[in-house]
Design goal:
Helix 3 packs across helix 4 (156-167). This protein has helices spanning 41-48, 119-123, 126-139, 156-167, 181-187, 200-203, 216-222, 241-246, 251-260, 262-270, 284-295, 312-320, and strands at 2-6, 15-19, 29-39, 61-62, 67-74, 86-89, 102-106, 110-112, 147-150, 171-176, 191-194, 207-212, 226-234, 274-277, 303-308, 327-331. It is globular and about 55 Å long. The protein folds into 2 domains: 2-124 and 301-331, Medium-chain alcohol dehydrogenases, catalytic domain (Quinone Oxidoreductase, Chain A, domain 1, Alpha-Beta Complex), CATH 3.90.180; 127-277, NAD(P)-binding Rossmann-like Domain (Rossmann fold, 3-Layer(aba) Sandwich). The chain is an alpha/beta fold. Strand 15, helix 12 (312-320) and strand 16 form a beta-alpha-beta unit. Helices cover 31% and strands 26% of the residues. The strands form 3 sheets. Strands 3, 5, 6, 7, 8, 15 and 16 form a 7-stranded mixed β-sheet that branches. A 6-stranded parallel β-sheet has the order 11-10-9-12-13-14, with helices on both faces.
């Protein structure tokens, strides 16, 4: 089958289109013919080799982390799906490869796609949707009336998280550029900070939660907006010991991550708030619940641009430039 393959770490030059063997179907797998897959910053981090300590892939591998498509075969133990079902999924991290014509995915990681969405729209959801769900609901237990700051509101995670937080009844602040300010307000943001003009840390106070998608100096300054007992959850900051332990990483890597996150954890403790790192997990159950919310009209996926499959490298390059509003999708089938 046709696929987009990473041969060597470094940059997009290490990526090529080629032929790879068809995927094997395990007893608890569904074989999906992929119609669309989305491009995520995670794909770029993988191909650059930034996640080798966490994700020790053996190259070459097929890239791609989420999909929408049609089930063509099911394993002997599968009971929830049948050929012809339209599904969407985020494969487990050790089984990625959605920039391809077919993929085998564990049944537990798959859900029927939202009926109101096109394949391209559905493919834009899994990774960012699960990230937002696991940050806002599973970890933070965000409640109606609470206040949350979501950084980079015009990005893939930001556009989804704003809408999910509003669905939960929270007051939502976000940071974005001048050009996107009105747009993220229409998504549901109550307070929009133009990061080119204003300092969010001087404006926002007594927030319950920060969802950090940027890391670095933004992460450090975000501590100032939280009230005592507040939380900052980061998908871009340094991994913390809890993540390293849960991920089953070896002792040496655990100690390295402990050191990497020491300063931000100490700074958070001094302000009587908590810092944690989130690395999203696959979950068909959470995708099913998200599909219900989407079909009810509470969340509308934002797709910036759709690239043909043969232009996947161009799509990766476009995401790398950092100017996409919402998600970038590759049309496969």
């Amino acid at each position: 089958m046709k696929a987009v393959v990473l041969d060597r770490y470094g940059n997009i030059d290490g990526v090529r289109a080629g032929e790879v063997p068809d995927p094997e179907l395990r007893d608890d797998d569904v074989l999906v013919q992929i119609h669309a897959a989305s491009v995520n910053p995670l794909d770029l981090k993988i191909l650059e080799g930034k996640l080798k300590a966490i994700l020790p892939y053996r190259l070459p591998i097929v890239l791609g982390n989420d999909l929408a498509g049609v089930v063509v075969r099911v394993g002997a133990a599968v009971r929830r799906f049948k050929p012809g079902d339209e599904v969407y999924a985020r494969p487990r991290q050790d089984r990625i490869g959605t920039f391809a014509e077919f993929i085998s995915v564990n049944e537990e990681d798959v859900a029927i796609k939202p009926r109101e969405l096109t394949m391209e729209e559905a493919a834009s959801v899994p990774l960012v949707g699960l990230t937002a769900w696991q940050a806002l609901i599973e970890r933070a237990n965000l409640q109606a009336g609470q206040k949350v700051l979501i950084h980079a509101g015009s990005g893939g995670v930001g556009t989804f998280a704003i809408q999910l937080a509003k669905h939960l009844g929270a007051t939502v602040a976000t940071t974005t550029s001048t050009a996107n300010a009105d747009w993220v307000e229409r998504l549901g943001a109550d307070v929009v900070i133009d990061y080119k003009k204003d300092d969010f840390a001087e404006i926002l106070h007594d927030y319950d939660l920060v969802l950090d998608t940027l890391g670095g100096e933004t992460l450090k300054r975000s501590l100032r907006v939280l009230k005592p007992g507040g939380q900052i959850i980061s998908i871009s900051g340094p991994p913390d010991p809890s993540f390293a332990k849960e991920a089953g990483l070896n002792w040496i890597v655990q100690q390295v991550m402990c050191l990497l996150s020491f300063r931000i954890r100490r700074a958070a403790k001094r302000r009587d708030v908590t810092y944690s790192f989130l690395f999203m997990k696959s979950s068909g159950e959470q995708l099913r619940r998200l599909a219900s919310i989407i079909d009810a009209g509470a969340i509308h996926p934002v797709v910036d641009q759709v690239f043909p499959f043969e232009s996947t490298k161009a799509a990766l390059d476009y995401v790398e430039q950092g100017r996409a509003k919402g998600k970038v999708v590759v049309k496969v089938g």
